[in-house]
Amino acid sequence: MSTLNSKIPAGPIAEKWSSHKEKIKVVSPANKRKLDVIVVGTGLAGASAAASLAELGYNVTAFCYQDSPRRAHSIAAQGGINAAKNYQNDNDSVYRLFYDTIKGGDYRAREANVHRLAEVSPNIIDQCVAQGVPFAREYGGTLSNRSFGGVLVSRTFYARGQTGQQLLLGAYSALNRQINEGTVKMHTRHEMLDLVVIDGKARGIIARDMVTGEVKRFGAHAVVLATGGYANVFFLSTNAMGCNASASWVAYKKGAFFANPCYVQIHPTCIPVHGSQQSKLTLMSESLRNDGRVWVPKKAEDAAKLRKGKIKPNDIADADRDFYLERRYPSYGNLVPRDVASRAAKERCDAGFGVNKEGMAVFLDFKYAIQRLGQETIAKRYGNLFQMYEKISDVNPYKEPMQIYPAIHYAMGGTWVDYNLMTTIPGLYSLGEANFSDHGANRLGASALMQGLADGYFVLPYTIGDYLGNEIMVPKINTNLPEFEAAEKAVTARLEKLFNIKGKTPADHFHKKLGAILWDHVGMSRNEAGLKKAIEEIKKLRKEFYADLLVPGELKNVNPELEKAGRVADFLEFGELLARDALNRKESCGGHFREESATDEGEAKRDDENFAYVAAWEFKGVEEEPTLHKEELVFETIQLTQRSYK
Amino acid sequence: MADIILNKIYVKVWRQNSPKAKGRFETYQVENVSQGSSFLETSFTCANSMKARPL
Prior knowledge:
Chain A is α/β, with parallel strands linked by helices and 646 residues long.
């Protein structure tokens, strides 16, 4: 059985990474050429890792399920990327970024990883500028910044409201350069369906060619998962329809521990759910809270009139508006972290102050910023977001406040990794949103892009050498070994099983049901009875799925329904683990709010004595209870205090 | 949740069994479509409604 060894280097926090780099193995160029690395997923983390490893000289084979790495969901990130550059001379520093991230994560992240993230953050900006990423600039040519939630400085670099897209173009062009050089072999429209483990080490993957349906074997000396997060387990989320947890899930089933699955980010500013058949939610960037003010009516009767459409938001006088974030959190105001802003919105709506027909929305108002700065400035900052909002809601946000409501957005939990980003399976790495390590129980805005690129450009390229340095005598991995044959057979058998149920109900139906169970009981507010109920309901739903699933089409052909069925089957198992983890963690922290653990003011109340640990789960069988392993979180630098943004 | 449901939405779907097979359009009447649905969501509703049959 594996035991958790986080391999955090000794020494003062600010020296851990540099001293670690001095000590870890380096592979010679002549040996790198002999080593194969598989990278699964080519968003920001995967593309940057694949490009960097190939540039170093490794033979890289990369996979994505999309038509092109250009389609990875990283592209949807809007607001920006944090870096401790202190360009604004506002007293920012590596330490302050480190501190803000630990505090924002409600003291549930690993100090050493977070400090490293803050240390490499300035390099990311330099790297991206060198690639030609068009970050916003001031009139004089210097890079511009804005603020995001949970911080008191301006350290977010951005490219209008499409920062993710521009960063991805940078990483994608670096990747394409390697593809052209022949150092990366790219397999698009391939979905990883199993991990091959030989003598305890990750040695390859089984992937399905989504065009022909063929199931194929790929071997390598190391496997890197950069496959994103699991937010889509909730069905309704801001993630792309294709986002899924299957690669991480098969790795979990092969022995990679899964950490903190109950930490899910609910983003406060999304376009509210409308109607009953919605399949996707749209995020409105957190950057909007720089200039937008969040409010609901002070009087319940005004809220009731709004819901009935009898008055318009602009009919309500300023004095009758409750800017509840500014009221409750005077020092951070509208820029409190996401978990805090989300719960505050829910609290107002539950109290009867919701402003749309469903009573599940609050206002985000730009009237004041437009008065202060002029419409042109606001259009320059957020023009594309305003246009997107108007297209979806048919309301012009220059004239009338936006309606927003929290929605599932990001997964802080993920595959457990040590300081080198290696999972509990030797030779298997996990990067970006797919791992658990840097955001604790709540991620700060503009930190996902930072982490994905830090892992891919600046961490893995060093740390993977420490493992591969011991693999230089291992010849090319032979995919005819029995372990490959067994894994391929298992994948084929599973696909046939799903295909041959021949029931009446398509996969989406089960996915929606699962999402509803999770949103109701494992969403913004959780309690013991609800979580236990969720576990039972998920088990029941899983049975129904295997009794009544319908997969039309053919096995050996393009078949989106078959792809979906596999992903939903995994979500039906993963959702149970999510609920179990939430049940185990009896404290509230960050995005995980247990009703049993709240302060008198309704804020999340941590229990550091009993829960200052990472919960890493070990697979024991689908119908068996997983085993919990605890990695104690040791805070050497930052003192634990109850988080306050007041 | 208050929701206006539309029952007379017609969609033309391109059907092709495999990359080299001959394809054809089929027309479906989709029922029970929420007014708030996007075009893609309407097509999901169509795909998920096993009652939908080509007209």
